[in-house]
Amino acid sequence: MPTDKARRQQLRQEHRPENIARRLQQPPEPRRLSDLVLGAIDGCITTFAIVCGAYGAGFPSSVVVVMGIANLIADGFSMAVSNYEAVGAEQHFFESARRTEEQHIELVPEGEREEIRQIFAAKGFRGESLELIVNTVTSDRRLWVDTMLQEEYGLSRVFPNAFASAWWTFIAFVVVGLIPLTPFLFSGLTQTQEFVGSALLAGVVFIAIGLVKGVVNRTARLRSAFRTFLLGGGAAALAFCVGYLLRQAFNF
C-alpha cells in the first residue's frame, strides 16, 4: 500500500493542469462492473438455488444438471434482454427529455433562463457572478440543454452500450452460474458430496464477488464479501427449505 506521502505526490501529479486537461478531454467510459457483478451474483444464486431446491426435494443428480443448465441459459438470456431493454429505455427517456428542453428554450427562453438562474442561485451564486453564469450557459444552446438535463432531470450524456451491457451480463451469468454445477458433472461422487462441493464453490464465488466489489468501489472488502455471501446463502437456504417442505408435503 502506498504511504500518505506517496499518495499525496501521486495526486499532485494527476492534478497538474496539463493532466487535468487531458483527462477531461477524454469521454468518460461506462463501467462494466455493475453488469458483471449483477450477472455473476444472479447466475450463481440461480444455479445454486436449483441445486439446493432439488437436493432438498430428493431429486437425482441428473435432474439437477438438466434443470441447472436449462435455467442457466434461459435465465441468462432473459436477464440479458432485460438489461438491454433497460439501457434502451433510459436512452429513449434522455432523448425525449432533450427534445422537451429544446422546445421549451425555443418557446419560452426567458422562463428557461430563469430556471438556470434559480438552479445556480440554489448553489450559492449571487449578483454579478450569478448573472455571468446564466449568460454563459444560455449563450450556448447545447450547453444550455445539457445543463437543464443534468440539473433538472439528473441525466448524464454518458450511457452504456445496450448490446455490450446485455452481452457481459449474459457471459457473467453463464460462466459463474456453471461453477456450482461442476461437482454434479463428475462421476464417482455421492449426492451428498456433490451438494457439499457445490455449496463450497458457491460460497467461494460469493465471497470473491464481494471482495472484487470492495476493491473496485474502494469500500470495506470483508464487509462487502460478507454481505454478498449472506445474500447468496440466504437465497440458497430459502430454496432448500422450499424443496424440503414440498418433498414432505407431496412425498416425492
Automatic annotation (TrEMBL):
Keywords: Membrane, Transmembrane, Transmembrane helix. It comes from the Bacteria. The chain crosses the membrane at residues 36-57, 63-81, 166-189, 195-216, 228-246. Its main location: membrane. It is a multi-pass membrane protein. It is found in: Endomembrane system. Residues 1-21 have a biased composition (Basic and acidic residues). Residues 1-25 are annotated as: Disordered. This is VIT1/CCC1 transporter family protein. It comes from Microbulbifer celer.
